[in-house]
Structure prediction request, 169 residues.
Amino acid sequence: MTEHVLNLLFLCTGNSARSILAESILNHVGKGRFRAYSAGSHPNGAVNPFVLDLLKQQGLPTEGLRSKSWDEFAAPDAPKLDFVFTVCDNAAGEVCPVWPGQPMTAHWGIEDPAAAEGDESTKRHAVSMAFRLLNRRIALFSSLPIGKLDALSLQNELNTIGDLRKTGD
Prediction:
């Protein structure tokens, strides 16, 4: 019996850093159980170069990563989504499109590393911090016995994961 691959969309405003990191991490650790995508409400059109550098350093996939609109995932031919997670507070507060299939949603807010000010070292550190927090949350998410949890229990787990504020939590 073949297990159904679960589709997950990570959303943020610009789709240049946090959601891109999450897409790459989950596609790597999901080991075929998950197919992750990312998009933005107002995509800035380019992936943050520090994000690409970090992903490459971590040996994670970067091929095909691009900044794109969430409208692509509301289209009739879009993949049926099982989960939609916002990773920035701005996107969480926006009116989202209607997602085909009525996916489960959660908010996993993270500070925007693309907004970090300062020298290159400061910006790389901000990307690294976002990566660590997303990596921790995604590890917890991917270890959930999703098929064995009822909808309310699963939603509670997703919300609890989203409440993690530090990589050590």
